[in-house]
Design a protein that fits this description.
Elements: E1 16-22, E2 25-31, H1 57-73, H2 80-90, E3 97-103, E4 109-117, E5 121-128, H3 133-138, H4 141-148, E6 152-155, H5 167-172, E7 177-184, E8 190-197, H6 205-239, H7 241-248, E9 257-269, H8 272-276, H9 281-301, E10 305-310, E11 313-319, H10 325-348, E12 358-374, E13 377-383, H11 385-394, H12 396-400, E14 404-407, H13 408-413, E15 418-424, E16 433-438
Parallel strand pairs: 12-14
Antiparallel strand pairs: 1-2, 3-4, 3-8, 4-5, 6-7, 7-8, 9-11, 9-12, 10-11, 12-13, 14-16, 15-16
Helix pairs in contact: 1-2, 1-6, 6-7, 9-10
């Protein structure tokens, strides 16, 4: 069967995902090149039905229905490929192996590869961004089909090993035919699917016609799932876990406010202006990321949520769980002490141009976040007197020579683990506030280290 040519369309952004597999290792990269984007795979115009055996049409239609209903809504995406394989094999198409390469809009990962084989079942792997992604992609079969915009059917026994890295592995595993299918979505991203069979005669003409018949619907299903995943993931990255759920549930009107009883952690890098005065913007961002690498993992490990990055500082909360108020405060204290210890270790290891220090403040109260702004441009921000109090306490760290300070409300729910440092005036508050530091058994790593 002659592969159909897909005509190029208008130029738009592309994000080509590639998978290369060698010795059981699957490596996916995201191509950073920009190409002319063809019409989306889902926009087939009905021509895919031409030449299909009428006796196969009802079951092929059932596969398309399954893709747009059940497969689109599956909670576990790992069940899509085995579900597709089961239905194709029931139709007489000898599929022994399927793999998908899907682009991700993620700060850490370029994409995800999912695979199914008759012998091993399902598996998946996330692929981090890397410096060699373009080279690996350009040498992959996915780059070939994205360039030609046509399906690629290879007779494994007749294909030279050097054509693609995966060929020797496919031959060793006994596969006869290897089919590579490009998937183009409406927003310009490029993805891919592969099918392989051990059937002695490989994929027949009607097998390929069935695959062409279901592929536009497969692409539509991928696009539906990808768009939902991208929206969910990007919101989570930029506004945090709980705010992203609130936004997706409809909390998008200006003035809407949510309140959370929690332990509040406010952190601030000291002398940031001086430290970055001679740094390029790129080096300043690297400094901040290294600093947050010391701070955020302990917060997340203790169940905390970073609600807001604020330049060289952040605000995190540790939610109360039922009537147990002390566990949230204990988690915040543990995270703060561990963050200070990690920063000290990073300084000792010379990870920064010069040693850096930070001040942390712990408070217990109510964090409120909501939509503020004007017109169509809103910000989901954190507000409230308890948040302001935590930030003002953090301003006392340098004055008192302490890296970690706590409010009266915080020590009230976690008694016996603090030492008083007196009553101090706080900017913007009418009354002075009692301030505390951790007791000696909790203070390891909490003394200030001024550069």
């Amino acid at each position: 069967m002659t592969p159909a040519h897909v005509a190029p369309g208008a130029s738009t952004r592309s994000a080509a995902v590639a998978c290369t597999e060698a010795t059981g290792e699957k490596n996916m990269v995201l191509s950073s090149s920009r190409q002319a984007s063809p019409p989306p795979t889902a926009d087939a115009g009905g021509l895919e039905v031409l030449g299909l055996d009428p006796t196969l049409l009802p079951k092929a239609l059932a596969i398309r229905d399954w893709l747009l209903t059940e497969a689109t809504q599956l909670t576990d995406p790992g069940q899509i490929l085995p579900g597709l394989a089961e239905r194709l094999n029931a139709l007489g198409i000898p599929v022994d192996r399927i793999m998908s390469a899907i682009h991700l809009l993620h700060s850490q990962y370029a994409g995800v590869g999912r695979f199914w084989t008759k012998e091993e079942g399902t598996g998946s792997r996330l692929f981090p961004h890397g410096p060699n992604r373009d080279q690996v992609y350009n040498e992959s079969p996915f780059a070939h089909v994205h360039r030609t915009r046509e399906w690629l059917l290879l007779d494994v026994a007749q294909t030279p090993d050097e054509r693609f890295n995966i060929i020797p592995d496919l031959r060793a595993a006994g596969y006869r035919h290897y089919l590579v299918v490009p998937i183009f979505l409406t927003e310009g991203t490029q993805h891919g699917l592969t099918f392989a069979t051990r059937a002695p005669d490989g994929f027949g003409e009607q097998d390929l016609r069935v695959l062409r018949f279901v592929m536009p619907t497969m692409a539509a299903m991928i696009e539906i799932r990808a768009l939902h995943h991208h929206l969910d993931n990007v919101l989570r990255i930029y506004v945090g876990d709980e705010p992203h759920r609130a936004i997706l549930s409809g909390t998008i009107r200006r003035g809407q406010v949510s309140r959370i009883r929690s332990a509040i952690l406010f952190a601030d890098m000291r002398d940031y202006t001086r430290l970055t005065a001679t740094l390029s913007p790129e080096d300043a961002v690297q400094l901040l990321n290294g600093y947050f690498d010391c701070l955020v993992p302990p917060i997340e490990a203790e169940g905390g949520e970073v609600l807001k990055y604020m330049g060289n500082g952040l605000l995190a909360i540790f939610r109360e769980r039922g009537e147990d108020r002390a566990s949230a405060a204990q988690a915040a204290l543990t995270a703060a002490v561990q963050a200070l210890a990690q920063l000290e270790a990073a300084n000792d290891a010379g990870r920064f141009p010069s040693p850096i220090s930070m001040g942390l403040a712990l408070h217990h109260g109510e964090a409120a976040y909501g939509n503020v702004g004007a017109g169509v441009r809103l910000d989901f921000t954190v507000i409230g007197p308890d948040v302001n109090l935590a930030s003002r306490i953090a301003q006392l760290n340098k004055v008192l020579g302490e890296a970690l300070l706590m409010s009266q409300a915080f020590v009230d729910v976690l008694p016996g683990r603090s030492e008083p440092l007196g009553v101090h005036a706080l900017d913007g508050f009418a009354e002075a506030a009692p301030i505390y530091r951790p007791a000696p058994d909790y203070s390891a790593g909490s003394k200030r280290r001024d550069p």
